[in-house]
Amino acid sequence: MKLNKLKVKENVKKALEEDGYKSDLSLNSSKINKKHVAKAKLVTRQNGILSGSFWFEQAFKIIDKNAEFNWKVLEGRNFKKNTEIVEIKASIQAILSGERTALNFLQMMSGISSKAKAYSDYLKDTKIELLDTRKTLPNLRYEQKYSTYIGGVKNHRFGLFDAIMLKDNHIKAFGGIKKIKNFKFFDKGDFLEIEIEKISQILPALKCKPDILLLDNLNIKDIKKAIELIDSNCLIEISGVKKPEDIKKYKKLPIHYISLGDLTKNLDSIDFSLNLV
User: Fold this and answer.
1) What is the rounded CA–CA span in Å between residue 73 and residue 53?
2) Whole-model pTM above 0.85?
């Protein structure tokens, strides 16, 4: 996933404005010299993977364009508990008013990347790819999908606009899986994916010539039956994994994807601490 710097700057600016950085009463009600240049160090209190460093920088640079950063840990790299991550040199206003926004992005994104890596490690030496989902926080999808990518996960469709994916309610709305037909594709990158909740849906779904069948929350026994029925006529994705260790159950199956809503729905942020020197 390519880093869109313009989008990052826009998103960080919105976050700073949400926090009211221009109306920081703690600074405006005092006689402190807001332009005074100070140093601060960021330290982690947990092990993890660094993700969101460009967002972190922008939270300070938008306030002080001359802010400088000396990164001791680079984007996508592992770090250990109590490691110094970066040293910042910027105006006291930038450090104090931008701190919370910077940390909010970094702790969330590093947490997602760290969880993604924990899941992907269970699939080493296999051809199965992990996929993220659209179960993201409103207005933070780009950040969350970027973070899963940094952690070694493949980005699934970004939104409703870049694939035809028929889930249970679509199938009900169309009158059942046997009524699905004649879909129009607008771009070469479009694909058709159909969600399967029971074995009896597989053969009717295959008549639609899908690119992918999503086996949703099926047990291992039913997944094996489904694989036989699909018989290599399309790619196979499964969902319903609740924790990294569950991945082990699927490692030896001839499937192509495992999609994980847990990556972005249930957040485990990394604990960082920013301290003035």
Assistant:
1) 10
2) yes
